[in-house]
Design a protein that fits this description.
The chain has about 240 residues and is an alpha/beta fold. About 45% of the residues lie in helices and about 20% in strands. The structure holds pyridoxal-5'-phosphate. Pyridoxal-5'-phosphate (PLP) binds next to strand 8 and helix 11.
Length: about 240
């Protein structure tokens, strides 16, 4: 049921903030048995809407644009943690390097090198995920599995000490075909397990799998997502 239909069934005095709260409670209950964490995607949402979620208890927020991330961060309490989930340009890394908690969208060696450089300047470690291309659409960003392996075997990567790769991120094809999405998420999970043994010696830090959006997070949960990135299902369309 979509949000508009739902609003027809709700008491007349039910405000949007209450609805965000109800959505949030329902989703938290769904994620809990899987031990999966929620990244609340705040793109195109006002600071007020985001604050409603903060008050409900949410602390992990994701933006896909650097400028909006920086602006919203100043409007929220300091214990909110910020994740960059969208395509990141190398010239913007410096703006988020001092505080970003996790970058989900590393899709090139060039970007990884810049994150290493800026993390070093800030004297902090930055956790990142490699974004792997798993969808059919040509437009989605991400590395092929070959590119990811070549990055991980390179001397450049091995000499880095401020950037830490803690897992993978992927976006499935935008389709109602559940079997297709299922296959794509299963493929990402398999590749994750393969890298874990081949390149990370099973170290515990390599443990995150960021997959699943409003449309397909239930499928992602079945394949071991540790983060789902949800926007519209929380805030409404
Ligand atoms: C917008 C966005 C999401 C959330 O999408 P919804 O369909 O609103 O849940 C997740 N991940 C990325 C990278 C996004 O840009």
């Amino acid at each position: 049921m979509n949000t508009r239909m739902l609003s027809l069934l709700l008491p007349k005095n039910m405000q949007p903030a209450d609805m965000v709260y109800e959505n949030y409670q329902r989703i938290c209950a769904e994620l809990k048995p899987y031990g999966c964490r929620l990244v609340a995607v705040t793109k195109n949402r006002s600071a007020e809407e985001v604050m409603a979620l903060y008050r409900a208890g949410q602390r992990i927020f994701g933006e896909n644009r650097v400028q909006e991330l920086c602006a919203k961060r100043t409007q929220l309490p300091h214990d909110a943690e910020w994740h960059l989930i969208g395509h990141l340009q190398t010239n913007k890394v410096k703006y988020i390097a001092p505080f970003v908690k996790l970058i989900h969208s590393v899709d090139s060696m060039k970007l990884l090198k810049e994150i290493e450089r800026q993390a070093c300047k800030c004297n902090r470690k930055i956790d990142v995920l490699l974004q792997i291309f798993i969808a059919e659409e040509e437009t989605k960003f991400g590395m092929s599995t070959e590119e990811a392996e070549s990055l991980l075997s390179s001397g450049d990567y091995r000499s880095m000490s401020y950037v830490r790769i803690v897992g993978l991120m992927g976006m499935a094809t935008n389709t109602r075909d559940e079997a297709k999405v299922d296959k794509e998420f299963a493929g990402l999970k398999n590749f994750f397990e393969y890298l874990k043994t081949q390149y990370f010696g099973n170290i515990p830090a390599f443990k995150e799998l960021s997959m699943g959006m409003s449309q397909d997070y239930k499928i992602a949960l079945r394949h071991g997502a540790t983060y789902v990135r949800l926007g519209s299902i929380l805030f409404g369309e």
